[in-house]
Amino acid sequence: MNGYETGNNAGFRAGGTTAAPTVDPMNARHALPLVAFALAGCGDERRQTTAQAAATATPSPTATPAAGRERPRPARAADTPVRSGSDRPRVRVLAGGLVVPWDVAFLPDGRALVTERPGRVRIVSAKGRLRRSVAARVPTRAQGEGGLLGVAVDPDFGAGRRFVYLYVTTSDGMQVQRWRMSGNRLTKDGTPLRGIAAGAIHDSGRLRFGPDKALYVATGDAGRRQLAQDRGSLNGKILRLTRSQYRGRTGRPERYAIGLRNPQGLTWQPGSDRLVATDHGASGFDGPSGDDEVNVIRRGGNYGWPLVRGRNHGRFDAPAQVYPRTIAPSGATFVTRGASAWTGDLVLAALKGRALHRLRFDGTRVVRDQTLFAGRYGRLRAVVEAPNGSLWVTTSNRDSYGSPVSGADDRILQVLPPRR
Predict the structure, then answer these.
(1) Closest among 120, 4, 23 to 64, alpha carbons compared
(2) Which domains are present in the chain?
(3) Strands, E assignment, 269-408
(4) Parallel, antiparallel, or unpaired for β 254-258 and 263-268?
(5) What is the pTM of this model?
(6) What is residue 144's predicted lDDT score, i.e. its pLDDT?
(7) 3-class secondary structure, 217
């Protein structure tokens, strides 16, 4: 493993970088010594219809050190969250050699589940080591932007509801599947939600449990923008499933919010419990590229896609933050643990922008936007707050739009927020 390095603490600003699209063949998967981080260009979130070359890849034994046999133990969030020890964030590489790690979810015993887009669920031990063995191989149609995407752990997992929920692209469309966990293995238990149209683009993929223990599912417009305003469609929406629905089977989830293009971040603001979502703006074929959004989601809200864009939404719900220049925002989380200058702030990952953004809110209004680690680690996909208060970030440099910035890509990074 690499040691920590001091993070970039750039001034507050908005916007991202622009780089020529590069298609990666995904054929170099062996982790190399993590000595230096080379900077490289990245691709846009442009239209892609070819199948992923790594759909049947086998993880390289040299890329994933064995964790050994470990007896899972119940874990508690640290009384004192881990911090960098200075006024700057620090970054450590936890694991390398993954194939497009899309999302991360933590189990009560401290282990983490990581989805790889070709259809694998991996386990990272409570000590931060990636297991060689695969927890599940999930049949998926890993085409374009689809595959095995989001993961969420049942809020009552520790009370015996040992379910894990996966967001998967299949030949019949997008599905939310329920899997049961035993030891280090997952077996399929059911399909609570289906009927979401899948496309070569805009499959979204994020799902999260809210403070109300409901399951929230973000859906993209599947490249058919009219679906976002079609209340009969499940696409271009944020859907909400109750406990009886996600533990059983539902044909009609609540359309919690509509008018979204390709939302990939769902998180709740501490204190207010407001739901905040990121959404990709147009990327050329469906309008001039730009106007990515951060939205404070109101139940029953309509966020305007494809009828309006930019800051002025007229009769539609307006975004809290707009990026006129495309950054392709993906995963997002609030920093909920204390003892940090970032506590209460939103951190989002940017794909084309190749950076993290830290946003400070005053109520529902964004008052600061800081760009972090610009270009250093390439395309960033997921960002999740761990039980110990650190942030786990995944890279997407070996997907169809990226180009590796390290021989160890793709990686899981651990970011220690700065002390207060």
Answers:
(1) 120
(2) 5-416 (2.120.10.30)
(3) 275-279, 282-284, 287-290, 292-297, 301-302, 321-323, 329-334, 346-350, 355-362, 365-372, 380-385, 391-395
(4) unpaired
(5) 0.85
(6) 85
(7) strand
